[in-house]
Amino acid sequence: MALIIPVVFIVVFAFAIYKKVKIYDEFSAGVKEAVNFTISLIPCLAAIFMMCELFEASGLADGLTKLLSPVFGVLGIPRELTKLVLIKPFSGSGSLAYLDEIIKNYGADSYIARCACVCFGSSETVFYISAVYFAGMKNKKLAMPIAVVLISTLVTTIFACLICRVI
Amino acid sequence: MNVIFCAVFFLSLIVLTVTAPEKLLSSLLSGAENSAKMALTLFCIYAVWMGLSNLAEKSGLSKSAAKALTPLTKKIFKTSNPAALESLAMNMSCNLLGIGGAATPYAVKAIAELEKDKNNWAQKLLFVINATSVQLLPTTVIALRASAGSASAFDIFLPSLICTSISTALAVALYTFGRRIWR
Fold first, then answer.
1. CA distance A70 to chain B (A)
2. What are all long-range contacts of B56-62, with beta carbons under 8 Å and residues at least 24 apart?
3. How far B172 CA sits from the closest chain A CA (Å)?
4. Is the ipTM of this complex over 0.90?
5. pLDDT tens for residues B63-106?
């Protein structure tokens, strides 16, 4: 499985050589696009990260975690995962830090850690993606799609906690 | 997004003003700092993948991939714009291969192309599919477990695959259904 990425590179490079593409020029042209693309993301990123930081610093994030832990418990989601599930839609790096913590605290093969891994792997940073995808668009009425994604993510999280007991 | 941002930001602002006003500026600054770090990390990912994807594009490889997937993407996204179809096909292939970093630039390109046709439905569908994660192989998680000394780091592969399929299928169903009653 670790071979997927090297194989993709070899195939693309071999095909480009075969088609006599100017590899160095075109590769750097691609990187140039990456520069412009990243710069276009920065305004949205900065605003959202400031919001997340405030949310965390004000204690509202902790409060929400405490408030929702029992609710999640009823749904079959272990208490230890509440924070991970809540942070994931906002921040990939933040939730990755929590996931790492859970794995280290409970052991990589524990039920909690396996559960956390499956939840993490089957969800995405919804708000970040919505900001990036629609950064330049006029129509930003995303309430419905975002709600749909969040509901599906929650249902999947509940299901993940069930399935990890069996498999 | 405007409503969410405003609500969360303002509420946190009020709470922070009451509980710890001196923390306000420092947390805003550290948020901005995190975003700069994130932008740098993202640039590194995009530099690698967009460099590679430009090679795939110029050699005609992505066009062939798009052609192979056209019947499928045409049906799902209801578009016949060839540039959009190409980006959509590449986005899907990158997602399935588990290289999410490469998938994002294609998604942004596809959305810009779909904007030209005013195909709002397809734009949001693409978002829904990507935001529920369609990767076949959760590489990051497996690497994390292996490094923490897991006896079988790969054993979350099957549950992850099942869960991620369910979440995408459910989201697409809800979206198609929701679109009829709520515009």
1. 22
2. B56/A12, B56/A15, B56/A16, B56/B90, B58/A16, B58/A19, B58/A21, B58/A26, B59/A12, B59/A15, B59/A16, B59/A18, B59/A19, B59/A21, B60/A19, B61/A11, B61/A12, B61/A15, B61/A16, B62/B86, B62/B89, B62/B90
3. 8
4. no
5. 888 888 888 888 888 888 888 888 898 888 888 776 767 788 88
CA distance A76 to A163: 11
Please report the DSSP string for A11-43 in residue order. HHHHHHHHTT--HHHHHHHHHHHHHHHHHHHHH
CB contact under 8 A, A33 and B105: yes
CB contact under 8 A, B120 and A124: no
Rounded to a whole number of angstroms, the distance between the first and last alpha carbons of chain A is 21
What digits encode the pLDDT tens for the residues A54-77?
888 888 888 888 888 888 888 888
User: Encoding tokens for residue A21?
Assistant: 């593409």
